[in-house]
Amino acid sequence: MRCYLFTSSYAIAVILAVTFLGHSALVVANELSNTVVDVGVYYESLCPDSIRWIKQQLMPNYDTLQNYINVTFVPYGKASYRQDSDTQQWHFTCQHGPEECNGNKAQACGIYAIQNEESANKVQQLSVALVGCVMSSRFPPSSVPQCAQNLGLHDNTLTSINKCIEGPKSNELLVLHGKATQNLNPSLSFVPTITINGVNSQEIQNKAQNNFFKLICDTLAEGAKPSQCSTA
């Protein structure tokens, strides 16, 4: 099933300083490029296209690109949230059902715990490894704790992940990811949506889905590319 969005029921808050569409968006991404490219990954824990992209585009290329990209994971996608005015409890609806909401929360907790408990110079590597492990598992929504353990994360990190998943922090994180997703401009229409240096366009999507490695090579400044880009 393709993870498209055909309707939008809410207004999107524009937070980008400058917004371009189509080809010009990729031009902006190129102009902003330097030695490191900011990559935003807006995805869902049970979306087949999200799983495919992470397994086939991100993971095989990460070792080569790790020093050239900053990856931000936003597990939310085409979900929605509301807060009960009486109880202040958060309620979520996800495209692939409640289990996907649980999976999005769990990955949000894993990423958050790594950012706060692990060494700063290992945060991206461990975050990518965790997401890659989870999204390659048989059932991503329940795989975060086991993948975290398999990666050898610190005991404090494991404790933080479990506490987050079982407590209100997971809801708070998913709301934050929801707001970040709603702030995409143009608004999210396909999952996963990949942004380059904060820019979201159809041209970027096409290139990211078909050849993420080449997209990064094309975005990096001349003289700041891995040698493998010469054959991309």
TrEMBL record:
<keyword id="KW-0964">Secreted</keyword>
<dbReference type="GO" id="GO:0005576">
    <property type="term" value="C:extracellular region"/>
</dbReference>
<dbReference type="InterPro" id="IPR004911">
    <property type="entry name" value="Interferon-induced_GILT"/>
</dbReference>
<keyword id="KW-0732">Signal</keyword>
<keyword id="KW-0325">Glycoprotein</keyword>
<protein>
    <submittedName>
        <fullName>Gamma-interferon-inducible lysosomal thiol reductase</fullName>
    </submittedName>
</protein>
<comment type="similarity">
    <text>Belongs to the GILT family.</text>
</comment>
<dbReference type="GO" id="GO:0016671">
    <property type="term" value="F:oxidoreductase activity, acting on a sulfur group of donors, disulfide as acceptor"/>
</dbReference>
<dbReference type="Pfam" id="PF03227">
    <property type="entry name" value="GILT"/>
</dbReference>
